[in-house]
């Protein structure tokens, strides 16, 4: 259990249940919170609704602006073996919004988890359920829960998780050569490298631009190439291979000890497929081309890229699977694994965590595709969430991360940005919300920003202008990067010859001074619940 002030966030419970169906619904989270079924006071009661009908449904009153509401329940169907069900909120009859989705079934109970934040207070709101394709069926709902959290409670939970998952307590023990405790020694620790990867996309514009290079390496420990590895860049016409630019970009990140993701081997979007590939009418010719692509790319860069996005956005597009058969993606993963067994292979998709309005990429759809690939033999070990946000729904974001966490794989945000339809200050505010939630979630292993800089700007969001002057989003990133590192800690050893501190995970330099003698060493803080003990002899 994780607690927000006096209310516990049921994260551990979700790790047990997640995206799996159950024979019976579990009790309501938070004892139902403020949610009641009609006139019933039983939060675990069963209620049935016909598709598209509001009553019976959850009716709630006096919801507040800015409060974080987490919603959950269990759902079962009649009249269809399975269906995509959407939970929708209709506040004061002003239109309905999606707050959660689930792939529900008739033979078991499926867990729904989501949430919302309101723009304005509402006197009466209805939470109801719809079948995405509108076919007639009965939807039975049980164990409903709606739990409010203040923004302060939400932030307290984030900080508590960061303390437990992103930091560790260390104790420095100082002794003389005879093993006697040294009391009053001056201890100083300075973090030299961060454990948690936070990075950004880069483009060829960084080559030869020393100011941009310095700006980048001063901030980030991870990178991804925006377009330079995509097939249309490396082989614009059949047989014409162009790796000079990605080779130079790789040399840059390697020289600064920056980890780099490989993006991407294939992209199911027909519009992002090289024209000459689209013109291959024979399946045999297309198969030969894709095999040459994957073998050539993976052999050339074997061991260089920590991750590979193998078949980008396969939930939305199907160029290769339509032409090579439904097993094409499994074959891509298998060949990639053989070619570079040390790389972690990822799915990468948009609108999984950004919204629940996209029926192609719901959290359960993503999980089902991942399980399908793994059942077919694919060595798929990473969950890639692009993170192209409009206005973020942070309770929904957490709910989706909780469900994906049950799969037991590292989750990476691979392309975070905020839509440029917002002004600069709003972009910055939304970016901070997203980054804080991502960093605080224990299942998230890394964060990449989609902010490759060009003279004309960026895809949706820049951190600086072309002169490297910070925009409001850049101020947010700089502030968070400084907040999430141990700039320096120090003090004197106590009566037991020890000095303790809590530091962010990563690499450190330790300096100890006593009676005009100084010793220096290095140590690391790796993930762990126990205190890290470092012994120093003066």
Structure description:
The protein has helices spanning 11-17, 151-165, 210-217, 231-234, 244-255, 275-278, 283-300, 319-324, 328-339, 363-375, 394-405, 424-440, 472-483, and strands at residues 2-4, 7-9, 46-50, 58-63, 68-78, 82-91, 97-105, 110-116, 122-131, 138-149, 167-175, 186-194, 198-202, 222-225, 259-267, 307-312, 344-349, 382-385, 388-389, 411-418, 444-449, 489-492, 498-504, 506-514, 517-525, 532-537. It has 538 residues and is an alpha/beta fold. The strands form 6 sheets. The chain has an 8-stranded parallel beta barrel, surrounded by 5 helices. A 4-stranded antiparallel β-sheet has the order 3-10-5-8. The longest helix has 18 residues, at 283-300. The chain starts with a strand and ends with a strand. Mean pLDDT is 92; it is low at 1-7, 10-17 and 37-55.
- The overall strand count is 26
Sheet with the most strands: spatial strand order: 13-14-15-16-17-18-20-21
Rg, nearest Å = 26 Å
Low-confidence segments, given as residue ranges, are 1-7, 10-17, 37-55
Helix content: 25-40%
Shape: globular
Q: What amount of the residues lies in strands?
A: 25-35%
What is the terminal separation in angstroms? 43 Å
Task: Give the count of helical stretches.
Answer: 13
What structural category arises from helix and sheet content? Answer: alpha/beta
The largest sheet is: 8 strands, parallel, barrel
């Amino acid at each position: 259990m994780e607690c927000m002030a006096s209310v516990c966030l049921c994260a551990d419970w979700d790790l047990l249940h997640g995206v799996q169906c159950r024979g019976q619904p579990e009790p309501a989270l938070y004892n139902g919170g403020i949610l009641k079924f009609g006139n019933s006071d039983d939060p675990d009661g069963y209620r049935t609704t016909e598709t598209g009908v509001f009553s019976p449904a959850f009716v709630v009153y006096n919801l507040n602006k800015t409060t974080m509401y987490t919603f959950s329940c269990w759902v079962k169907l009649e009249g269809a073996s399975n269906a995509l069900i959407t939970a929708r909120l209709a506040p004061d009859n002003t239109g309905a919004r999606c707050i959660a989705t689930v792939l529900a079934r008739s033979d078991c109970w499926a867990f729904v988890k989501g949430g919302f934040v309101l723009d304005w207070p509402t006197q009466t709101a209805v939470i109801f359920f719809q079948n995405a394709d509108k076919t007639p069926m009965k939807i039975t709902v049980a164990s409903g829960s709606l739990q409010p959290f203040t923004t302060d409670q939400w932030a307290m939970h984030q900080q508590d998780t960061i303390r437990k998952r992103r930091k560790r307590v260390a104790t420095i023990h100082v002794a003389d050569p005879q093993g006697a405790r040294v009391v009053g020694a001056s201890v100083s620790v300075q973090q030299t490298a961060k454990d948690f990867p936070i990075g950004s996309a880069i483009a060829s514009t960084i080559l030869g631009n020393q100011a941009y290079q310095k700006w980048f390496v001063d901030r980030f420990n991870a990178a991804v190439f925006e377009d330079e590895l995509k097939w249309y860049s490396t082989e614009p016409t059949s047989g014409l291979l162009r790796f000079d630019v990605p080779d130079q970009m790789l040399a840059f990140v390697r020289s600064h000890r920056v980890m780099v993701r490989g993006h991407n081997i294939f992209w199911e979007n027909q519009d992002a497929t090289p024209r000459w590939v689209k013109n291959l009418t024979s399946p045999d010719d297309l198969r030969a081309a894709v095999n040459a692509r994957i073998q050539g790319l993976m052999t050339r860069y074997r061991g260089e890229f920590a991750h590979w996005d193998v078949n980008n956005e396969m939930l939305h597009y199907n160029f290769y699977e339509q032409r090579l058969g439904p097993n094409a993606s499994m074959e891509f993963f298998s060949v990639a694994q053989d070619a570079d067994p040390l790389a972690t292979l990822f799915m990468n998709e948009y609108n999984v965590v950004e919204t629940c309005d996209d029926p192609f990429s719901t959290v359960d759809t993503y999980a089902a595709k991942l399980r399908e690939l793994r059942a077919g033999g694919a060595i798929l070990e990473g969950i890639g969430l692009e993170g192209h946000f409009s206005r973020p729904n942070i309770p929904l974001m957490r709910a989706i991360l909780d469900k994906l966490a049950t799969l037991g794989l590292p989750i990476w945000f691979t392309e975070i940005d905020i839509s440029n339809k917002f002004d600069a200050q709003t972009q910055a505010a939304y970016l901070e919300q997203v980054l804080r939630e991502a960093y605080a979630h224990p299942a998230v292993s890394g964060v990449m920003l989609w902010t490759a800089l060009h003279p004309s700007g960026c895809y949706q969001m820049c951190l600086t202008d072309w002169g490297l002057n910070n925009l409001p989003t850049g101020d947010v990133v700089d502030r968070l990067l400084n907040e999430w590192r141990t700039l320096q800690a120090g003090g004197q050893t106590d009566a037991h010859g020890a000095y303790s501190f809590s530091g962010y995970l990563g690499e450190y330099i330790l300096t100890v001074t006593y009676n005009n003698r100084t010793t220096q060493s290095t140590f690391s803080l790796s993930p762990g619940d126990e205190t890290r003990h470092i012994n120093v002899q003066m």
